[in-house]
């Protein structure tokens, strides 16, 4: 059974991947979607042209991996694409934000993504693709977004490292690093998005379309938009302290 697996599929970028993948990859038998919201996943199921297998549950808990693992083995699954899109962020000074929520961010953004990837790799083969959803925040430390940016730096490094390891098997890994995306992300993060971020906001359809195109082209990194590409270049060339200063300055001007 040829399948695609998408985490965080109930909303935002994950939901958009679920919509676009069947249009580009017509040889799939099923799409497996994972998220906490059962109702939203059932709504998504009605939209898609392929059979959908729903795994509703908390990706920071073991039971959902046990369920998916059993089904992978039972169906002798051939995973053609894995998209790890589950994650969240919190805006504000790290010392002032809720500690439990920040630890949960690490669990979901890093540990869950790692666990899902390692569980799926044995069911992948030449031509399979992994898309790890990071962020342009991965490129440099970010004040008032410190833990989130750190988790996405982990995703970026993990994707590049495992991607190199998997090349010999013909498995393509692409790490997706968008800037601000017009989803409900900022509502959960604790802000609607500053004017500074709104200026660089992209639509999820465009970000996902480019990510899938970059994956098909076997690119290791997918960055949507000239502004985010410039941010990546600046983070490579400039000292971190200067990048942090520039971000602080830009945020203050937008206030």
Structural class assignment = alpha/beta
Q: Write the CATH homologous superfamily.
A: NAD(P)-binding Rossmann-like Domain
Helix content: 40-55%
Given as residue ranges, the uncertain stretches (5+ residues, pLDDT < 50) are: 249-255
Main sheet record: 7 strands, parallel
CATH topology: Rossmann fold
Shape: globular
N-C termini distance = 52 Å
Q: What percentage of the residues does DSSP assign to strands (E)?
A: 5-15%
Q: Averaged pLDDT, please?
A: 88
Identify the CATH class.
Alpha Beta
Topology as H/E string?
A: EHEHEHEHEHEHHHEHH
CATH architecture: 3-Layer(aba) Sandwich
The helix count comes to 10
Number of strands: 7
GO molecular function, one term: oxidoreductase activity
Family: Belongs to the short-chain dehydrogenases/reductases (SDR) family.
InterPro entries: NAD(P)-bd_dom_sf (IPR036291), Sc_DH/Rdtase_CS (IPR020904), SDR_fam (IPR002347)
Keywords: Oxidoreductase
Walkthrough of the structure:
With 255 residues, the chain is α/β, with parallel strands linked by helices. It has one domain (2-254): NAD(P)-binding Rossmann-like Domain (Rossmann fold, 3-Layer(aba) Sandwich). It has ten helices and seven strands. A seven-stranded parallel β-sheet has the order 3-2-1-4-5-6-7, sandwiched between helices. α2 links the parallel β2 and β3. The longest helix is centred in the middle third of the chain and has 22 residues, at 99-120. The N and C termini lie far apart (52 Å).
């Amino acid at each position: 059974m040829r399948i695609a697996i998408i985490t965080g599929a109930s909303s935002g970028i994950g939901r958009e991947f679920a919509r676009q993948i069947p249009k580009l990859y017509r040889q799939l038998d099923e799409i497996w979607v994972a998220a906490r919201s059962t109702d939203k996943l059932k709504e998504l199921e009605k939209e898609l042209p392929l059979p959908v297998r729903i795994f509703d549950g908390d990706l920071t808990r073991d039971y959902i991996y046990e369920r998916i693992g059993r089904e992978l083995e039972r169906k002798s699954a051939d995973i053609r694409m894995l998209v790890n899109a589950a994650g969240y962020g919190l805006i504000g000074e790290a010392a002032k934000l809720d500690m439990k929520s920040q630890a949960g961010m690490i669990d979901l953004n890093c540990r869950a993504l790692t666990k899902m990837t390692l569980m799926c790799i044995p069911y992948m083969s030449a031509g399979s693709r992994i898309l790890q959803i990071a962020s342009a925040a991965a490129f440099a430390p970010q004040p008032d977004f410190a833990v989130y940016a750190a988790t996405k730096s982990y995703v970026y490094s993990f994707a590049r490292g495992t991607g190199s390891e998997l090349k010999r098997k013909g498995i393509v890994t692409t790490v997706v690093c968008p800037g601000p995306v017009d989803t409900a992300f900022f509502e959960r993060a604790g802000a609607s998005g500053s004017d500074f971020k709104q200026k660089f906001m992209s639509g999820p359809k465009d970000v996902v379309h480019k990510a899938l195109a970059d994956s098909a082209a076997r690119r290791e990194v997918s960055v949507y938009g000239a502004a985010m590409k410039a941010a990546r270049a600046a983070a490579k060339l400039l000292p971190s302290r200067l990048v942090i200063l520039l971000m602080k300055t830009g945020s203050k001007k937008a206030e």
